[in-house]
Write a structure and sequence with these properties.
The protein is an alpha/beta fold. It folds into two domains: 125 residues, Periplasmic binding protein-like II (D-Maltodextrin-Binding Protein, domain 2, 3-Layer(aba) Sandwich); 89 residues, 3-Layer(aba) Sandwich (D-Maltodextrin-Binding Protein, domain 2), CATH 3.40.190.10. Helices cover 33% and strands 28% of the residues. It contains nine helices and eleven strands. The strands form two sheets. It has a six-stranded mixed β-sheet. It has a five-stranded mixed β-sheet with strand order 8-7-9-6-10. Helix 5 links the parallel strand 7 and strand 8. This is ATP phosphoribosyltransferase. Pathway: Amino-acid biosynthesis; L-histidine biosynthesis; L-histidine from 5-phospho-alpha-D-ribose 1-diphosphate: step 1/9. Pfam families: HisG.
């Protein structure tokens, strides 16, 4: 972990999409406005109305890495991403707040008509496509089911349709994408929301600047709970 220099702006790591959109009200509650919309800009570093705070736009799966190694002082990432990151880096980052945003669930889904209950009898074997390898292994190990994990990064719903996998483990919000592809969620693994994460060195060396923002996020997220 590399502590950030105190004369530089605080850096908040965010990903585009739902997490970014649902973070804006939290920033507003802290008196901060973002100067540009990342969906309409190619910029990866966005200024804010606070000259002491800038935002960097990174892939969702990279947010914990930027925070852990001090390229960002803090960030916001889904519990799904954090669980996978922490499995490989158990002491890397501090997670002070569940922000109660970008809520969904991690679930098992299969083709409609697939007899999932019979397929997960103890001692059986399944092929499961997912990018959430750690959570998937733990879930099926607890059921006594052997699995072959096929790691994919996108178009997860295609895997059961073309015979690549028997099931998928993925995030589910409305379930509309599953329905559109003739799939159905058959088992929930965990509720998912996004968390505030903080670089441990920054928390020590820049606490006077970080803590007011952390406190404002905590108040705003508590109001959403």
């Amino acid at each position: 972990m590399s502590p950030a220099r105190n004369d530089k702006p605080l850096t908040l790591a965010l990903s585009k999409g739902r997490i970014f959109d649902e973070t804006l009200p939290l920033l507003a509650a802290a008196g901060v406005q973002v100067a540009e919309d990342p969906s309409a800009s190619r910029k990866l570093i966005l200024p804010t109305s606070d000259p002491g705070l800038q935002i960097i736009i990174v892939r969702a799966t990279d947010v914990p890495t930027y925070v852990q190694y001090g390229a960002a002082d803090f960030g916001i990432a889904g519990k799904d991403v954090l669980d996978e990151h922490v499995a490989a880096n158990p002491d890397g980052i501090y997670q002070p707040i569940d922000l109660n945003i970008a809520r969904c669930r991690l679930a098992v889904a299969v083709r409609k008509g697939f007899d999932y209950q019979s397929a997960v009898q103890q001692g059986s074997r399944l092929r499961v496509a997912t990018k959430y390898v750690q959570a998937t292994r733990e879930h099926f190990a607890a059921k006594g089911v052997h699995i072959d994990v096929i790691k994919l990064y996108g178009s997860m719903e295609l895997a059961p349709l073309v015979g690549l996998a028997d099931a998928i483990v993925d995030l589910v919000s409305t379930g509309n994408t599953l329905k559109a592809n003739n799939l159905e969620a058959v088992e929930d693994i965990a509720p998912i929301s996004s968390r505030l994460i903080v670089n441990q060195a920054s928390l020590k060396t820049r606490s006077a600047r970080l803590q007011p923002l952390i406190d404002a996020f905590a108040r705003a997220s508590a109001a959403k709970a």
